[in-house]
Amino acid sequence: MPAAEKPMINRDVARVSAEEVRQAKKYQAAILADVAGRRGTLHGRIKPLAPQMTLAGPAITVEVRPGDNLAIHAAMAIAQPGDILVVDGKGDLSCALLGEIMATQAQASGIAGIIIDGAVRDADTLSKQNYPIFAAGLNPCGPTKFIPGRVNYPISIAGASVQAGDLVVGDIDGVVVIPRDEVQTIIALAKEKLAGETKRIAAIHEGDLRPHWLDGALRKAGMLTDGETL
């Protein structure tokens, strides 16, 4: 099918499994980002509206023109319970793409959270709730609803590539994206890393203050000579 004839709303999405989402929820975004090779994190401008907000689930990807949310409404209509809306709003903050009404609809529909590289509004109300909304900023100006967008096609959002069905995990540190076919590997690595970090923190509390790798790293970087120690 020629590109011009492709439907702008793709309903055929292979999602990360509910069990994989359940397992991933055990780990901070930072742990997952580290074991993913420090790739796949969204720019720090994407923040939760309140510190307590966390999310994890398969991505429903949305691309909109700045200031228009028509495609977000389409995505909300086809999303399944547990999905996360991931909206490439081009980082535009001139108009909000979503507010209390749409967030209420999304929550009632079972959508597990919303990530927008753009602005939202009604933050006073939304930030007092636990429904997770991550955005790049705020603006009281409302959106238009007439410019075509695309749903469930690959997007680039805040420095990361996202495919529909990929795993997205977010908390107060930000958002990380894990490709669907890498999730099991990343979860296994996260389990190992968390165990190592827990052990290291316990050692610090017991007086083992200096990382064992530090002298070697300093020598390799030329900051210490052979045989020299701190």
Walk me through what this model shows.
With 230 residues, the chain is α/β, with parallel strands linked by helices. It has a single domain, classed as Ribonuclease E inhibitor RraA/RraA-like (Glucose Oxidase, domain 1, 3-Layer(bba) Sandwich). It has helices spanning 18-24, 29-35, 70-78, 100-108, 123-126, 183-205, 214-220; strands spanning 47-48, 55-63, 84-96, 113-120, 133-138, 150-151, 155-157, 160-162, 167-171, 174-178. Strand 4 (113-120), helix 5 (123-126) and strand 5 form a beta-alpha-beta unit. The longest helix has 23 residues, at 183-205. The protein starts with 17 loop residues before the first helix and ends in a 10-residue tail after the last helix. The model has no long low-confidence stretch (mean pLDDT 96). This is Putative 4-hydroxy-4-methyl-2-oxoglutarate aldolase. Substrate binds at residues 99-102, 121. Keywords: Magnesium, Metal-binding. One of its GO terms (molecular function) is metal ion binding.
Number of domains: 1
Q: CATH fold name, please?
A: Glucose Oxidase, domain 1
What is the number of E strands? 10
CATH class: Alpha Beta
Helix content: 25-40%
Segments where pLDDT lies below 50 for 5+ residues?
A: none
Q: What is the distance, rounded to the nearest whole angstrom, between the alpha carbons of the first and last residues?
A: 65 Å
**Main sheet characteristics:** 8 strands, mixed
CATH architectural designation:
3-Layer(bba) Sandwich
Oligomerization: single chain
| Class based on secondary structure composition and strand pairing | alpha/beta
What's the gyration radius in Å? 20 Å
Instruction: Write the element-wise H/E pattern from the N-terminal end onward.
Output: HHEEHEHEHEEEEEEHH
Strand content: 15-25%
